[in-house]
Sequence to fold (459 residues):
Amino acid sequence: MILYAAGTALSDAYTAATMRHCDTLIAPRWCVPIEPPDSVLTDHAVVVTDGRIADLLPLSEALQKYQPSVSIERPDHILTPGFVNTHTHAAMTLMRGLADDMPLEPWLREGIWPTEQRWLSAEMVRDGTELAIAEMLAGGTTCFSDQYFFPEIVAETAVDRHMRAMVGTPVIDFPTAWADDISEYLNKATDLVHDPYADHPLIATCFAPHSTSALSDESFVDLRILADQLDVRVQIHLHETTAEIAAALQETGKRPFERLNELGLVNASLLSVHCVHMTQVEVACMAESGVNIAHCPRSNLKLASGIAPVADYLSAGINVAIGTDGAASNNVLDMLSEMRTAALLAKAVSHDAAAISASEALKMATINGAAALGLAHETGSIEVGKWADLACTDLNRLNSQPVYDPVSQLVYTARADQVSDVWVAGKHQLDKGSLVHIDSESLLARVDEWRGRMAAATN
Ligand SMILES: [Zn+2]
Fold:
């Protein structure tokens, strides 16, 4: 409420009377809306009402026009869309550091799968997902695309913690603690995830077959028919390692991409994770089909899978987004370090220092990610009408000063702990570096209990 002192000019009173109410007014030093491209605004404000971006305008005009319930000034900060992590296995955050320095196959067979066999449960997924969400929020991520068992618990936890998510339902031909056979995987996915969350403001859903080796042709056809009926996307690990391709050739006579194409799954609804080893013909086919790529550079480095030539993919016109993969193979869900790694690696492998600029890397981590998940109309840029999914990062730190170009400083210097504020659908989730709606102490205590149990399983 504004109180008017005696003698206030009539014009001021008139202005006040015509001011519009808004929930939050955010005034950063720099605002990078992503759309239009390469725009860096100063002295601007973002206005949020009912969870959505209501306006983006010069601060002086905003102060005349809006009467906010909450005003947030961040004079040393850059405001961007929240980051979109297009590929992770949130619950596996509980296995962070459990089996390091191993190649993919023994890592899975000796480290990850025995632990999952012993401990995979709804409770493990709930606690692991909460830990992942807490870490991602604290580092500026406002949306993640997940692929793990008990996806209904992933969805529940994301809603509980008010985090945007694309929940991938697992599909494989062998039994796990979640389902026994292909029909149970598909039925549970539909009944527990796709149908209940069809119109949810925070949750989108997709099918997440693990890889081509995990499904028969018949299972892929059933999956494709159901995905088309439900109008949901498909997320799959593809061409992560040369060993995966060699094994597929030996078993089926076809490369995984070729088989997927023949089965009718190569299209604009496909989120293809990794794509480290692709032929030129496959790249042209991906571009023509509108396939989206989730590039996970740090996981590819850590598991020695190789380096995806993403500058070539972007030049071919493919939508390339960024994912962290799970914390068991990264080991952090930190989109700032992921986009930095993506930019640096692209320069090195293409022998071109101009390949993937800071601005391109930020696009990959925001609007490209939203587009890859089919959410570009809802998030990924600061535009009127979209959800207010926002990240604010403090550049007034020794390692980020001086600031000649705020986007360069964000991508090449900022650490996750410089993210000060995060909003998901307008809800203030991180306030000056503190998580508002997650009890970190209780979460850490539960995580430590899991550490004890899981360490015993691998010994
Ligand atoms: Zn993965």
